[in-house]
Amino acid sequence: MSMDAGLFSDRRITLEQLRTFVTVAESGGFNAAGLKLGRSQSAVTQSLQKLEEYLECLLLERRQGHIIGLTHDGRRLLPEARKILLSLDNVVSVLRRPELSGHISLGLSNNFNAVELQMAIASCIEMNKGLRVEVISSLTGHLAQMLEQGALDMAIMHSVGELEPADRLLKEESIYWVAANPEAVLREDDLPLVLFGDGCAYREAVVRTLDEAGVSHYLSYVSASHENVCGAIAAGFGVGVLPRSELREGIRIIPENDRLPELPLGRIFMRTRNNSPIISRFRDFICSAPCLSGSTESRAVQ
Amino acid sequence: MSMDAGLFSDRRITLEQLRTFVTVAESGGFNAAGLKLGRSQSAVTQSLQKLEEYLECLLLERRQGHIIGLTHDGRRLLPEARKILLSLDNVVSVLRRPELSGHISLGLSNNFNAVELQMAIASCIEMNKGLRVEVISSLTGHLAQMLEQGALDMAIMHSVGELEPADRLLKEESIYWVAANPEAVLREDDLPLVLFGDGCAYREAVVRTLDEAGVSHYLSYVSASHENVCGAIAAGFGVGVLPRSELREGIRIIPENDRLPELPLGRIFMRTRNNSPIISRFRDFICSAPCLSGSTESRAVQ
DNA sequence: TAATTTTACAAATATTGTTTTTTCAGTTCA
DNA sequence: TGAACTGAAAAAACAATATTTGTAAAATTA
């Protein structure tokens, strides 16, 4: 089926406009976005005005001359714009390094969504036809076992403690106490916890932290699936632990308070079993993926 | 996990450069591409030089001052560039029309790959959270049955004959006789055919056309899977029938000859069972998808 | 109320992309 | 062999576009 687009879409829309939109949405203002992008506030304003004009819809909710959030259409566009920018990132990054070939089995912790990382791996696989990657998604504890047993070549896992010397730190992320209704949950005597199943690195840390602080608690919901855990938190089953990027409608961060102790910093790291050339080249590839380069945790609008 | 790209990739790379690259790859020359894009040969040349510079690799195979094809990197970039442009197309198209909501079961003929169409449907689903689409992939014959039985709301199917009055033509495509090794296959007395299983609209047409022309033939390979059929043709099982866009390495179009009759024009069309508001709005949506707008069948380089 | 922050707008400036023109190399054809 | 043709590359002039600068208005903060 040809389905030839012939001439593609609206040729006035540029990547820079999308990038500007995403940055505004992430930084919450034209000034901040301009600073981040290295251009003036005026340029940002105009860039967005044009994008809105070409898209024939408003993207930013303005009230009294201030940006107070995204419109419905803006919220629809944001993830797609991110995806487009990210896939270009990945393509460029893959294209710039030599082609990979070989077979690799890669473990991926499913503690949290790692959409960006998965996209990077996917485009790497697509553009390196000689590469066969078998991805196994499981909890950190299980992956570590498989790695030791030789069932995996490498794994990307979560941790809160010290890493082994050969491990490669990919990313750090602050994790927060979250709940659907912080006030109500905190009023309960026993703290109801919504956590991942056994083998989750964060789970142990959370329980230990609570024990040390002398907070009585019980598990009200346990699942190995990220979807389920978030769903349970949103449904009000109890208190969970998530990084900022995993917040969604119906889940709020619990502000600092006397009862809940401070959580340690989360770490995402890579561990390899052997260092054959293919493995180490793929490891270098992953470690230099564009989605791992930034380290700012941005404050998103809405 | 934040995975914040912070500042995205190489900000010098533009959509226009990608578009130009794809157009050059499709039209096989800077002049032709310029004509297609509505700009001069010089602009196309410079645009591609920049893209190659920023990407730090050569995309076009030049010999004696002429483009003779894509480099390895060029072939790696092409499908990804297409995807990026296409997903922007889809996003813009979805954003410009009102949001859809409801439940729809959609049949999709698997005669041929319809990557672009599937991408359009996917981005429609992603951006219309109120929309639940159940996609069933099968051969045209089976889909038509399901439609009559009320198991499907709508279906996109293939045909070579007349359409029903209520059907909507989406796309026409020329189909060609193909084989791994045309010369060898044509030498055989009985023509070995590689076709889809029962229920494929093209299959019946092919057999009928051969019978009318008095060409003796037999089925050497039959499968309901597009992958398998292409694989069998490439492996030399016999003669198949494909549109230009489905050609791949190891499959060549058989030039016109005395033995093989001319094939009818293929049609891709949509049939709906009922015309509830949701269905008809979704139908209009699909019919106006960017990937269906063009009608040129381009001659690709390499 | 004054100071600060934030967005919008207009004109000047800077940058970028485009065309025009020319050149060169290879191909075709007389 | 030479003339005409085609496709690509390069340079300079030109056109279009984006960016900055500066200013104003409105809202927030102290």
Most extensive interface between two protein chains, with residue counts: A-B, 69 and 69 residues
Q: What is the CATH-assigned architecture of the largest domain in chain A?
A: 3-Layer(aba) Sandwich
Alpha-carbon distance between the two ends of chain A: 41 Å
Radius of gyration of chain A, rounded? Answer: 22 Å
Strand content of chain A: 15-25%
Average pLDDT metric of chain A:
87
CATH class of the largest domain in chain A: Alpha Beta
Instruction: Detail the poorly predicted runs of chain A.
Output: 1-6, 295-299
Helix and strand pattern of chain A: HHHEEHEHEHEEHEHEHEEEH
Quaternary class:
homodimer
CATH superfamily membership of the largest domain in chain A, which one? Periplasmic binding protein-like II
Query: Tell me, what's the shape of chain A?
Result: flat
Biggest beta sheet summary of chain A = 7 strands, mixed
How large is the count of helical segments of chain A?
10
Tally of strands of chain A:
11
Structural class of chain A: alpha/beta
Q: What's the CATH topology label of the largest domain in chain A? A: D-Maltodextrin-Binding Protein, domain 2
Helix content of chain A: 40-55%
